[in-house]
Amino acid sequence: MKQLSLTVFLLALAMTAAADTQSVRITNLQQGKRFDGIGAVNGGGATSVLLKDYPEPQRSQIMDLVYKPMFGASVSAILVEVPGDGNSTQGSMPSHAHERNDANFMRGYIWWVMREAHQRNPQLALDATAWSAPAWVGDFWSEDMVDYYIAWLQGLREVHGLELDALGCHNEKGWNADFAKNLRRAMNERGFRDVKLHGFGNWGRSKMDFVQRMQQDKELADALDAVCAHTYSEIPLSKEQRSAIEAMGKPIWNSEDHVYLKGYNCLISIVKCFNENYIVSGATRVINWYDIAGVYPLEPYSQDPAMLLAHEPWSGHYSVREALWGYAHYGQFSTVGWQYIDEGCLKLNGGGSMVTLRNPASNDFSVILETKDAKNVQVVEVRLPKGLSRKPLCVWRSNAQEQFVRQQDINQKSGRFTITLEPNTVYSLSTTTGQQKGSFDNIPASKPFPLPYEDNFDQYAQPATWGYLPRYLADLIGVFELTPRPEGQGQCLRQTVGSHTLSWAPEWHHYTILGDSAWRDYEISADVYLNPGDEAGVMGRLCDVGSGYGVWAKGYYLKLDDQGNCTLILTRGKPDPKELIGDAEQQALILARRDVEIGGEYTLATAKAQDFAALQWHNLKLRFLGDQITGYLDGKEILSATSDHYKKGMAGLIAPLQKKRVCTPYFDNLSIKPLGRNNATQPLAAKDHRPMYPQR
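RE: above sequence
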């Protein structure tokens, strides 16, 4: 064993001796832009909707790992979605203003995320922009949208005591010069002069087309405090674009980059992304999508690229991805307000990159290096000027075998130091102290979603303290909110979005999901209350909810309309002829449709209830047992079908989206019971579930 260790040591020594040395000499500490932070998006749909349902202490632990300084990712910026009722990749979140005269700043969990993150790090830069907006806004580039943004800023300040650092014009939907001017003017006049405005958050080859307009339009240039776009790691700024923006004195921000990779490859690619965003494109704030995957595994992007997975609030189990420590290599070694040192920001000769940052208020500095593209060991010698600390440099390293591990300190000698870099490795060096690899013991074990499951929603006596959102439901389209029952006795759910939103992504029906994608045989039931013209339903065996840009579900649903018509629907799958009703010609037309795999709906059975009345409660139940699917209304079987198209999947509630009407039915007494091949599991244990907001 000793002989092997000696051999490895001698081999490493020989490789170092053979490696070329790159000399980096820093002479000018003033040449370099202000560092505006690195961080992550919380948004693009309800990316953390299940996080709010975690028990303590796990809920706080998750937030610590992402936002607590000198602990985990320790990000210095967060960009949140201004919720707008519409789907925007991983579902939808409730707006503060469903209608024009509506204003409720307790809906949803985004306020809570911002508050919790800010409490952990008061220096955290708070940024926001909208993906979607309610229908009453009319046109996203309208004065109504200006008012919508201003109202959200007022709610954030007056109700939640937070001040936004920056606001984006829109997410990935073009640009409008007049809107930016109007929004800037309104922010100045209505108490938000200090909130920076950035635009326009687009992606693709044309994402910077508006820069030429800024050069010609002084009012537009004055309106935008920062110029931003997405994915500089994929499409960097050209030298001409960067020069034009810098000539106007505007900082360059990347308001959303993407690193959709697994394992350690994600970690090192995040650091490479941060480094090259500045080296190549001059970006001083880089925000990656996204932070905490508090979503069901069935949903798109439920693992990659998040830094932490929080899929099981019922068990309290969560897991940290290697990606989190990529953020830590920056987050624990820099703070908003530091300054880049341009002479220390470069691509390495042997592959990889290096960024150097300093604290203008002291003489501390940090160096972040990555060697993802290196083939061999390389040596870098750094020569420093007076004005930078001569303290020893702590060294933290990540490679494929171990992440964020402290190495032996480097002592500077006469203002210089040397470091040997291994290929495919990340290093952070700093004269600062206090870094740590934060962790928590005794994370609960993973457990399946508990069956049987019931919720009558009466436990939420003060819905506002829960953000009007019940536990474990994840809205994909629309908003299923806690509300008083229409007859005033207890609480229930209601789909509250009454019009087509200005959705970021294409719409399907309004629906919400819960449960386990491994479920096979079970029954889901709920009481439904239909307004005139409404439809409502229960869903089962949901095995897919779309790609993110488009959220059509694969599964079955049983719907009921206000005339007592019941219909069993198979969605998004090409059915066998035996699964279809109708004559042979109708069946042939359905089977011949070319789009049947991307949104088709097929009727498996229909029935009509006798002596039916709307504006009262009815129980709707959908049962799966092998290939037998049975629908019940008010406890009596009303229809059935044979289908094995989908054999397993999650449950849900649905308010079908009609051509001329958006349904807003009520739901209560949600129940899911195991049958056949699904056995009952341990009942839901008593957990320390706490509301998000204080009683008012």
